[in-house]
Amino acid sequence: MHHLASLAAAAALLANGAVAQFNMLRFACSQLVVDRVDPLVNPGMRYTPHLHQIVGGNSFNLTMEPVTFDLAARSTCTSCSFVQDKSNYWTAVMFFKHRNGSYHRVPQVGNGGPQGRLINNGGLDVYYIPSGRTTAFRPGFRMLAGNAAETDDSKVSRGNICHRCWTSPNEDQFIGGAPCTGSDTVAIPQNPSCKMIRQTIIFPHCWDGKNLDTPDHKSHVAYGQGTGANGGGACPSSHPVRLPQVMYELMWNVTTFTDRSWWPESGPAFVYSMNLGGSAAHGDYVFGWEGDVLQRAMDQGCNLNHDCPRAGLTTQPPEKYNACTIKQQAPEPVDGWLQAMPMGEMAIRA
């Protein structure tokens, strides 16, 4: 019955055009912390240029040296639903700009969709999508998708980073087709009819087979042919090793901000924490799965957010992963109305 339920859930995803892949991991990760630190791009720095929301293993730190910093060994809990996943995943934070000049962080909700409700305290949903024979990431592997300084929508592939205006206040009512298709845009939708804004970040799935990281956190990986959340197309000869396709899915709940009288008289109402639009959306990834569990999960066709004993993959209940949190390492207020975007000096409440 469990296997049939898994297939039924996957079939529901396919029917709604979510992802053209029967067996994939898709699971919830709750908010570990919202903090102005970035051990990938700005290691050791407190009060980095912009704010991030981080999920995953609780060993997340200001500095996480590749290989020597063993996330799986150092973490005592994870804010993700799979017990064996101590990886860290983080993205920029979305803010609403009020007409009076103050800012408010946009809250996030889980996106169960046809799969059934995934219960997140903030956070995001993570996908690992295989296509044929895939090689799991190795300890010390890390990468970056997107460019936090990009201001030109035309320089961003809509098939890899996109936003969708979600006109239903219920994430279970699926809106549109597969991620980053149809009316999805690189830009953040600026429309009061949006009840939620779904952000999708698809990472490169091709690896050079040698480097766990590179100075730009990008050159060791590449996108293959085609775009979209389908496990990825053929890899280039420079990056011949096929990785699981990692995808982040975030649901920004903008229902509180639909009153048009709150919106600025000019300029966007919704921006990311770099004070830039959708073209600057980006995601950071640091691998931290225990042992060879991820490789076995890919090989054994483990599906969605279900236990998979043949791969040693087990889930934990929402109350447990929701309880895995850490304190800010760059302390400042991030909730409620703020006088200015948290950039530079410590944030101050409005």
Can you summarize the main beta sheet? 6 strands, antiparallel
Distance between the termini: 53 Å
- Residue stretches low in confidence (pLDDT < 50, at least 5 long) are 1-21
How many structural domains are formed by the residues?
A: 1
State Rg.
19 Å
Mean pLDDT: 92
Order of helices and strands: HEEEHEEEEEEEEEEEEEEHHE
Strand content: 15-25%
The assembly state of the depicted protein chains is: single chain
Count of alpha/pi helices: 4
Backbone structural class: mainly beta
Keywords: Signal
InterPro entries: DUF1996 (IPR018535)
Domain DUF1996: 38-289
Pfam family, one: DUF1996
Question: Overview of this structure, please?
Answer:
The chain has 350 residues and is mostly beta strands. It has one domain (2-338). It is 8% helix and 22% strand. It has four helices and 18 strands. It has helices at residues 2-15, 71-74, 293-299, 318-321, and strands at 25-29, 33-35, 52-56, 88-92, 94-97, 103-105, 108-109, 124-129, 142-146, 161-166, 196-202, 206-207, 221-222, 241-242, 245-253, 270-272, 282-286, 337-338. The strands form four sheets. Strands 1, 7, 8, 10, 11 and 15 form a six-stranded antiparallel β-sheet that branches. The longest helix has 14 residues, at 2-15. It is globular and about 55 Å long.
